[in-house]
């Protein structure tokens, strides 16, 4: 449905020439899938969306939507011919138009009756059936987001692009809204490519996530694979909690480092791993044990209540014994 193959995208550099900000980036998304580009500010996420939407040309590589080439070196179909809808970070709703008129905006060219029917369908889809007459300032941030989504979906684009869909919303409501938005998108059948810098949003929303760094995708995978089988050190450090520690500190027969997640070690009097207790603290929802491994690496271990109770009162500096759970951690040379 969406195939991006080795695209290079850049902007004019201040001193002349081009500053490449997306370099050799590829991804594929099946029909109805939700893909997400995840990365720090400035890594090139929005630029990828702009290239797919038709606002930036590609210097190399190609973009196909529904099997049709929309961009390549020397080829750039205009945005309106790409069957791509975009929801912008600030929603870009027209303040002087009510919700229904905002949604109808992308339906120019259709008959009045068709527009009315489609607007009603979209309002119902986003759960705002009764609010078509409300102006943007009369709606909450979450409701404005849904109107913007309805507007982007109304023309029936093959592909929907969402740029930081939660950036204007309270952190408290983001998690709930992410789950809700995912349901809405799945119900609409749309294929979606979104971008965010927030890992929990990416995990809550997407079927596939591309971890980006400096214009490249380092791994394109489902959330669980990114967490359990990161492809390289950057992804290992970027996704989830954990530390890279020398394999030798855990007595493992391999060289290099391994990725130790907070649940990878458990206290066990017979365990093969020795470590020094640095701190034991309640952080909510549970206790976190700080340890210094052989060789000095500091790690954190999440404890269940029984293990925390068994260690309560031990002084910092005490030597503990632990064992690895869930097999051997992922390693990096
Ligand atoms: N119109 C432009 N002209 C020149 N440089 C630009 C332009 N837009 C973005 N850039 C630069 O390209 C790089 C990538 O920007 P982009 O907006 O794609 O990153 P991003 O990952 O989406 O970041 P953010 O989350 O901050 O939006 C940045 O260094 C940015 O300064």
From TrEMBL:
GO MF terms, alphabetically ordered: ATP binding
Domain ABC transporter: residue ranges: 2-239
PROSITE patterns from the UniProt entry: ABC_TRANSPORTER_1, ABC_TRANSPORTER_2
Keywords assigned: ATP-binding, Cell inner membrane, Cell membrane, Membrane, Nucleotide-binding, Translocase, Transport
Gene3D superfamilies per UniProt: P-loop containing nucleotide triphosphate hydrolases
PANTHER family tied to this protein: PUTRESCINE TRANSPORT ATP-BINDING PROTEIN POTG, SPERMIDINE/PUTRESCINE IMPORT ATP-BINDING PROTEIN POTA
Official protein name in the record: ABC transporter ATP-binding protein
């Amino acid at each position: 449905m969406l195939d991006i193959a080795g695209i290079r995208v850049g902007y004019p550099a201040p001193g002349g020439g081009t500053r490449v900000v997306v370099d050799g980036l590829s991804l594929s998304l099946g029909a109805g899938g939700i893909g997400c580009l995840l990365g720090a500010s400035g890594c090139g996420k929005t630029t990828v969306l702009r290239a797919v939407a038709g606002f930036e040309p590609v210097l190399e590589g190609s973009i196909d939507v529904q099997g049709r080439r929309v961009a390549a070196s020397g080829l750039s179909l205009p945005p309106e011919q790409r069957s791509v809808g975009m929801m912008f970070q600030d929603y870009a709703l027209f303040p002087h138009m009510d919700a229904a008129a905002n949604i109808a905006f992308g339906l120019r060219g259709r008959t009045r009756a068709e527009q009315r029917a489609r607007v009603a369908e979209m309002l119902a889809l986003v759960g705002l059936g009764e609010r078509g007459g409300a102006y943007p300032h009369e709606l909450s941030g979450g409701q404005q987001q849904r109107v913007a989504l309805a507007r982007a979906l109304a023309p029936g684009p093959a592909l929907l692009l969402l740029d930081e869909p939660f950036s204007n919303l309270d952190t408290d409501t983001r998690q709930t809204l992410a789950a809700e938005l995912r349901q809405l998108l799945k119900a609409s059948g749309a294929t979606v490519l979104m971008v965010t810098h927030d890992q929990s949003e990416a995990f809550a929303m997407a079927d596939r996530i591309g971890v980006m760094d400096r214009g490249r995708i380092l791994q394109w995978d489902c959330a669980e694979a990114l967490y359990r089988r990161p492809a390289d050190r950057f992804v290992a450090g970027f996704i989830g909690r954990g530390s890279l520690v020398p394999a030798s500190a855990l007595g493992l027969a391999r060289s290099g480092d391994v990725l130790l997640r907070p649940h990878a070690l458990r206290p066990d009097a017979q365990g093969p791993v020795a470590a020094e207790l640095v701190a034991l603290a309640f952080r909510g929802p549970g206790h976190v044990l700080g340890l210094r491994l052989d060789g000095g690496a500091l790690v954190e271990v999440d404890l269940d209540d029984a293990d925390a109770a068994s260690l309560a009162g031990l002084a910092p500096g005490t030597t503990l014994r632990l064992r690895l759970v869930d097999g051997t951690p992922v390693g990096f040379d």
